[in-house]
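quick one, 481 residues, struct below
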Amino acid sequence: MNFSETIKIHSGQIIWSNCGYLLASISGPRLTIWDAATLEVLQVYSSKETLDYVEFSPDSNFILTACYKTSEVNIHSLTSSDWNGRLSEGLGGLVKVEWTPDSRHIVTASEFYVKQTFWSLTNKSVSYIRNPKPTHNKLVYYNSDKSLGLVVERQNGFDTANILSTQDWTLMTQFCLGTEDLAGVVWSPLFNSFAIWDSALKYRLLIYTQDGRVEFDHGGHEHQLGIKSVVFSPGGHLLAASSHDGRIRIFNSLSWCLVHEIEHYPSLHEGEPVTSRAVVYEEADLQLQDPDTAIALELGGVVVQHTKYNIVNQRPVYLDFCKMDPKKGGNVKVGVGTCIFSTCGRYIASKCENLNTVAWIWDLETLRLAALVVHKNGIKQLKWDPGQPRLAMVTGGAALYFWTPVGCVIGRIPPVARGNMSGITDLCWNQKSRVLLLNNKESAVICRLKQNEGSKDGEEGSDDLDLEPTKEFSDTSSSTT
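---
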């Protein structure tokens, strides 16, 4: 792994472009555009106020920045230096802004979500939607081909769906939804239907077509908290719904029947059909016995890492789930808060809110637990590689964790180890190459995965992180890099 120099940012605002060749960061009133391959500064834009948000257009030809204090949005063209634009919400305030798929419209939301505005960059037209309902920090939800957009609003105390055409943003159909307090929306990648679910107070999952017909209504789990997240598989044939009861329910999108139910067990026993063959990786401290190695680390060198993975072969394995205190209010830290499919659709990575140090990797082909990765600190972020089934994780420290079907490894992050930046709390894969963006609120660093000589780009298992043997063929009980 090769790491770049530290990049200073503001509020964790650093992003890849959709084409994968550009990088943008904001620091105070300054916007910087970088070349993603060489980290050469291509363009710098300055503003009078501190910038709060940055986003590339889907075609990577434009970039916008938002200042919530002044309720203004500035747009810059990356292909023509003479073109610039500015939007202002005025006294209504600004809390959210995003691009539309055609890269020629911008959507903004005013304070308290009183209105949602569609701005056209071609004919300067403006249209509004009153009382939009924000869910998962998104303003508009799009279907797979981006031809339809869904905006949820609150009318007369009911959740209402507005289906819009993304060509001219005209209203195609409007209908009431069957939720009491809608919590989220997700479109199917396979059909023009979308899934919605109710708030944490009621367990209910509904599937609607674009014309308002109800295809599926699942709400048979009474007297318990509701759904936390819903996600479709990349092919759209499966839907996974994670809930507060610590289970993930898998539905077939063709017949909308429950095909499997994943339960996060508090213990793993020998002979148990679902978890007995799972490989358990446990992070452990790595003792520095060599004096030269310890001195090199103190002087700023990166020789070895402080932790390593040990493979736990003994059974049973007990997991310490935190119990919910009913006397404490606020957000309930219980249930499966993270549930994401791998790009190939075979694996699901999940994380429980009341056991945030453990990553669960499930194999949908065998319907078994493939691996259990136990860390010393809570997992801040985990994301799948867009090119192969490889999971990257960070825990807020100086280590970068990877899981693949052939093993689990830990990489050291030199800028954090030297004290040049604080611990990593977020990560983002580049969609076009084997590059990771690691950052916290103040700093960022780019990690490039090495590719073995003689291997072709895009070949699965062709880099330095795919050399770890599996449990069946390994003669050792630990894995380090």
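Residues 291-298 form the longest helix (8 residues).
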